[in-house]
Amino acid sequence: MELEGxxxxxxxxxxxxxxxxxxxxxxxxxxxxxxxxxxxxxxxTLILFLGSxxxxxxxxxxxxxxNTALMxxxxxxxxxxxxxxxxxxxxxxxxVVSPGLGVLIDSFSPGAGFICLSSVMIIGFVIHRSVVRAxxxxxxxxxxx
Length: 145
What we know:
Layout: H1 2-10, H2 14-18, H3 21-40, H4 45-73, H5 76-107, H6 110-144
Helix pairs in contact: 3-4, 3-6, 5-6
């Protein structure tokens, strides 16, 4: 009997009911940016571990949500190509940003690396918001016709 109550409480997350997928992506982007900025000026090891854990959770959640959105919006016949493009962009970013971050951290400090990663997240956030706005304006134009 006790397990039924547990499953009932946790099977329907209240946050997921209140926030749309785009809102959740925005929330995770903002959390990631805030965590990375706070890690840039951190002097405590425990906070570094907790921040890294939270950033990893946000980053994984972002990937899941964005892949879900991709699967919902792209026809099945184009899904393989869309995922290939998505992975190519991800791998190119990793190939360029990772060595650049290494040089930046060696030259300045680990805080500079966190600020650079935060800047990459800001760019991703801006791209996400601009795509959402473009979709909303396209939907509004279709409704007016």
